[in-house]
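Chapter summary example: a protein plus adenosine-5'-diphosphate.
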Amino acid sequence: MAGVISADNIEEDTRLNESLGKIKHVIIVLSGKGGVGKSTVSSNLASALSYKGYVTGLMDIDITGPSIPKMFGIEDEKLDVQDKKLVPIMVPPSLKVMSMAFLLPTKDTPVLWRGPVKMTAVRQFIEDVEWGDLDYLVIDMPPGTGDEALSIIQLIPKPDGAVIVTTPQDVSLIDSRKSITFVNEVGVPVIGIVENMSGFVCPHCKEVTDIFKSGGGEEVAKEFGIQFLGKVPIEPAVVVSSDKGLPIVLDDPDSLSAKAFMSIIDKVVKTVE
Ligand code: ADP
């Protein structure tokens, strides 16, 4: 990022590097618009990495509606502070979770900070978490490709890459093209595209029906010469498990969506490592 180099900048960058410096791989999860399943992908990605034995953290900076604590049933947890640093909540067996939601007065409070205050809060949030040594940190970004998302992505030192989440509808695919251009502009490599809500799985007969078309994410990936990570179907069990506070990869590993997530995660790990 271009800017005037001052003692303050250097000190701030040092704090960011100190906070994220002991992390081997940082993966950003983003989407061109809200509601496409970005947080669902982030939580399943992080849970599966942790389940596979990687020391993993999940950071929720979706200030437009931080939903990760709800997805793990930890929305009422209180944060600990040690040596002036926030200690992430440990979700069994070994996932460390931190969310902007924990800093809000009540879980139903929308984030109404004005621009500069919001950016200061996000920066402090990123700096002030004690992650310790991690193999992976998964970051759930706010949706969109506007100024706010741009300022936030630039706060993250050297991410390994971005996973872009889209749905099969044209409007979402247009947004995913914008997301690719967005990460290219800030110099973050694209790990690949996930097409979520791709086909509906009947809970009774397990037949898959393409209620909103399918394959658009793959076409966008081809168009930009990037990896297509896979399709995740719409499955009622995804909502049920996330409302229970357990991501589907842990709650129902035999479901079609859990299998889809596991195959996506294998591709992400292969790409990053
Ligand atoms: P975003 O983070 O993009 O706003 P969420 O991950 O919060 O989206 O998902 C929005 C809603 O859609 C949630 O209720 C979630 O449980 C549901 N959802 C996401 N992916 C799926 C899926 N593959 N099948 C069924 N429901 C899903």
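Key point: Residues 31, 34-40, 67, 143, 196-197, 232, 234-235, 238-239, 242, 257 surround adenosine-5'-diphosphate (CB under 6 Å).
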